[in-house]
Amino acid sequence: MSNSLLNLSDIPNFYNLNAQDIKPAMQDAMNQAREKFKQIKEINNATWENTVDALTDLTERVGRIWGVISHIHSVADSKEWREEYNNLIPEVTAFFTEISQDTVLFDKFKQIRNSTQYEQLTAAQQRKLDNDLRDFVLSGATLPSEQRERFAQLQQQASTLSASFSQNVLDATDAFTLHFTDKEELQGLPENALMMFQAAAKQAGKDGFLVGLQAPHYLAIMQFANNRQLREKVYRAYIMRASELDDSSRDNSQNIDQILNIANEEAQLLGYPTYANLSLVTKMADNPEQVIEFLQDMAKKARKFAQKDLQELQEFAKQYGIDDLKAWDIAYFSEKLREKNYSFSEEEVRNYFPISVVLNGLFKLIYELYGIEFIEEKRPTWHSDVRYFSLIRNQEKIGGIYMDLYARQGKKSGAWMNDYCGRRKHLSGSVQLPQAYLVCNFAPPIENEAWLSHQEILTLFHECGHCLHHLLTNIDELGVSGINGVEWDAVELPSQFMENFAWEYDVLSAMSCHKENKNTLPEELFNKMYRAKNFQTGLFIVRQMEFALFDLLIYRETNQPCPWSEILNKVRNEVAVIPAIPENRFAHSFSHIFAGGYAAGYYSYIWAEVLSADVYAAFEEEKNRNKTGQRFLKEILSVGGSRPMAESFMAFRGRNPKPDALLRHLGLA
């Protein structure tokens, strides 16, 4: 009972998690689950209660423990924790594969589906059962025993390789540092960035300034450092992470080869022509060709804008004596060109947005949209920076959110949402409330306050949108409540939708307070920001299309080993306007598609943006946030995965989605 992992209640004790508890907790939970699993299989008359709900009980407990272990591995990695985590990956994968491939259980689910019971189930229960039956097939339950065993082996190998890929990227990011004692070498960097580098040096027991590759460090150097050699050095270190040009012990080349080979073999075993076809079974898109056509069309629309963006930047850089604009110059001169064209800088904007005021403004917006309050609570957390908020509607708690917002050693880069648990109504009638993790990598607080750029505010809104999708559900079946059961290429709709409000003046003004004079964001400055909203959008879109096409094409490749490097170069030649330097090893740190669940699904960001822009257009048309927000809550957020997103969109918009709003928002109409 002293093992906190075996006692994960509504308030998990993150203070008392120990690496040595991981193995005994998981093995104990899996052994207990296997005993209960045997009992379920021995039942003669399968019902929702004694089979489907009973299975949810046992898999949720194991999944929750493993979810906490995986979460800590992502946000507070240590040598001991990683070792225990890695050792257990094959065993945990085998456990879940055992269940998903069990033919006796599959038959029981089919019996329920084909009986009169099915008609008595709620719509959410029917949706969950149909998804479960689909997932049995996608897990190999219908394969002959020998092929089923091979599929299980592949699943275990894939899990191990994904973890290795992610760890190599983290280690490569944390391994690089540059130490400066002379402030002159960091000319051009704003005071906020210098203080961040000073704090990093102090934490490492050094004087002066310490520059790493964590996102806030990297972006500050790329955007503001006058020293071109420094920008080049940091850029090269960043784009060579986890490759053969980095430390050979963390080279992801073989991981990529093996991940793609396994994905292809899994697809072949299940009877799909490619892994891309297999991946789309659980998505809105019909087939890879449809998605490729969509991406190529978007790339074609954006490319002429991107070429114009680049030409303007090249001409501008010549004023500084730069006739050969390089990759490490792009962000630097883009910032200077933005300042020239629109008369403001990112740092000028940052000084208006202390994170404490930003969060209050965000909570105010959410209350206006959905009538939800955020109340901070003191809870055990995995780091002193983490805060917990309960969500309250009509004086009743409906869920909770952990916010872990700052970059640090041992924490994966990027920003993401994940769940501790989902909403579920037990047979006893009690309701399990959903809880989520919101994770970002902003520069840590200095003198008790962190300051956000507008881009970081967009990131915060994006991840909060994911969390609201999970937390505001009213669906009682765990498999389809919140984000569960939502098609992967639609799951970005609520997050991208939320970003739009960070472009509304009253919202930004309400979350601003200048560092020195305490004034709110002036409307004049906001108007400059808004005019710059689509600054270099063309460059951004073709870059996203490059990533998405690369992802889909390599997972559509059947020749193994996959010539992924050649495919990337081919895509770049067709889509990109900024040539990549020969040393660019972007793929080696593309965790989204090799370790983050977006395999053959990176296109989801732009696909869902069509949906989200069209949804937001309803708010623009109706001009009543609360009224339209309540309808959005009812038809999309609250229903989770209990029905196809196409139906939810139709219920909200009254028609199928159109790309017009997105093209208008991007300035590409």
Question: What is the topology?
Answer:
Blueprint: H1 22-41, H2 48-75, H3 79-100, H4 103-114, H5 117-120, H6 123-138, H7 145-175, E1 178-180, H8 191-203, E2 209-211, H9 215-224, H10 228-239, H11 253-269, H12 275-279, H13 288-318, H14 330-342, H15 346-350, H16 355-370, E3 373-377, E4 387-393, E5 396-406, E6 416-421, E7 424-425, E8 431-432, E9 435-442, H17 454-471, H18 493-499, H19 505-510, H20 523-531, H21 537-556, H22 564-575, H23 591-595, H24 604-622, H25 625-637, H26 645-653, H27 660-666
Parallel strand pairs: 5-9
Antiparallel strand pairs: 1-2, 3-4, 4-5, 6-9, 7-8
Provide structural commentary.
With 669 residues, the protein is α+β, with helices and mostly antiparallel strands. It folds into four domains: 4-142, Endopeptidase. Chain P, domain 1 (Glutathione S-transferase Yfyf (Class Pi), Chain A, domain 2, Up-down Bundle); 176-240, no CATH class; 249-344 and 536-602, Neurolysin, domain 3 (Orthogonal Bundle), CATH 1.10.1370; 355-484 and 493-526, Neurolysin, domain 3. It has 27 helices and nine strands. Strands 3-4-5-9-6 form a five-stranded mixed sheet, with helices on both faces. Strand 7 and strand 8 form a beta hairpin. The longest helix is centred in the N-terminal third of the chain and has 31 residues, at 145-175. The termini are far apart. The model has no long low-confidence stretch (mean pLDDT 97).
